[in-house]
Design a protein that fits this description.
Layout: H1 2-34, H2 39-50, H3 52-63, H4 67-92, H5 113-121, E1 124-126, H6 130-150, H7 160-179, H8 192-223, H9 227-252, H10 256-272, H11 276-280, H12 288-310, E2 317-319, H13 320-345
Antiparallel strand pairs: 1-2
Helix pairs in contact: 1-2, 1-8, 1-9, 2-7, 2-10, 3-4, 3-8, 4-9, 4-10, 4-12, 4-13, 6-7, 6-10, 6-12, 7-10, 8-9, 9-10, 12-13
């Protein structure tokens, strides 16, 4: 019974953390417009703040001495989010009109009604092709870098120097996205209420992240599973659910590219800055096969994401079978992990 209660607490905490991240990110939407960032570059900028809950989960797990939960969350969320967000965005856009009350919103990434109707008939989720060069390829470079600094036997695991290297790599990633996605800015007005809600968002996000780690600790202890496995399939999945609702809402407004690319920017943050707290406390890799398989899929799924956009139909985006293919890759990952665990139990 206590496990069920902790699962309920975990879900509530996940939504609270996401609520905090959303209210922190709302003022950043204005900055995106003020700085004249495109939908893709804006997604990279916003991800620095929408991924705040993952960063705080990593901080909490490092401070509490349960770094495995933080590592599992970093890897697990980076694997499940891409197929889940693309699937959510696909079904969110399967209606005849996009935008509030059927009215078009003046956003760069919005589809015109006649274009959207054609995309519905083609079973296409349109995403701007620039997402591949601005976000996906640099993201894959980050995954390779993580493998280089954590896998060789001489320096296997996470050390403070690795945290510094990954943090600098993220700054390069963000910088190239912003520089390659600049346009003409717009004047924006700011209110005290927006600033106050952003501050409240930080507080709620921190409390939610702490509670998620505590809940996962108790669930893992009750079920007798390792911290890494708990982070991979409990913390990561619970934290993902709230983001799915957010992507659904954004996609419904017609901002399809932003709804489907912010996940790449999110996990560029998670895989670099999110590993920093774990590196600062020095974390060994106890289950090397599980880590290697997870890291492979952290790179493999976004690689297919980029391939589908770049070499897909004439108009960039995802066809229906490609959306389900991304989901299939996650199922394959889960099957491999479960098979490995069952073999160890025999």
């Amino acid at each position: 019974m206590s496990v069920i209660i902790w699962f309920i607490v975990l879900i509530i905490a996940a939504f609270a953390a996401h609520w905090g991240a959303e209210h922190l990110a709302k003022p950043l939407h204005k900055l995106v417009g003020q700085w004249g960032l495109t939908a893709v570059a804006g997604g990279a900028m916003l991800a620095l703040f929408t991924a705040g809950s993952e960063f705080l989960i990593s901080v909490t797990s490092a401070v509490r001495g349960v770094s495995g939960i933080g590592l599992g969350m970093v890897l697990g969320s980076s694997i499940i989010h891409v197929p889940a967000i693309v699937t959510v965005a696909y079904f969110a856009t399967r209606q005849r009109r996009l935008g509030k009350d059927g009215q078009e919103e003046m956003v760069e990434d919005e589809e015109k009604p006649e274009q959207h109707k054609r995309h519905l008939d083609q079973h296409l989720l349109r995403v701007r092709k620039e997402a591949v060069s601005v976000l996906v390829l640099p993201y894959l470079a980050l995954v390779i870098l993580i493998g280089i600094v954590t896998l060789p036997e001489a320096w296997r695991g996470l050390q403070p120097i690795d945290g510094l290297i990954l943090s600098l790599a993220y700054l390069v990633y963000l910088g190239q996205a912003l520089m390659r996605g600049r346009g003409e800015g717009e004047n924006q007005e700011w209110s005290r209420k927006e600033i106050g809600m952003a501050v409240a968002g930080v507080v709620v996000m921190a409390l939610g992240a702490y509670t998620m780690v505590r809940s996962t600790e108790n669930i893992a202890s009750s079920l007798g599973i390792s911290e890494v496995v708990a982070g991979l399939f409990i913390t990561a999945v619970a934290g993902s659910g709230a983001e799915w609702f957010s992507s659904w809402k954004v996609a419904r407004t017609g901002q399809v590219t932003e709804a489907t690319t912010v996940v790449i920017g999110d996990h560029a943050v998670t895989l670099t800055l999110g590993l920093l707290p774990l590196a600062l406390v020095t974390m060994p890799i106890d289950n090397l096969p599980l880590y290697v398989v997870s890291l492979v899929f952290v790179g493999l799924i976004p690689a297919f994401y980029g391939l589908f956009i770049r070499w897909g139909p004439e108009e960039a985006g995802f066809q229906r079978w490609q959306v389900f293919a991304l989901d299939g890759l996650y199922i394959v990952y889960v099957a491999i992990v479960l098979f490995s665990i069952l073999n160890l139990l025999e």
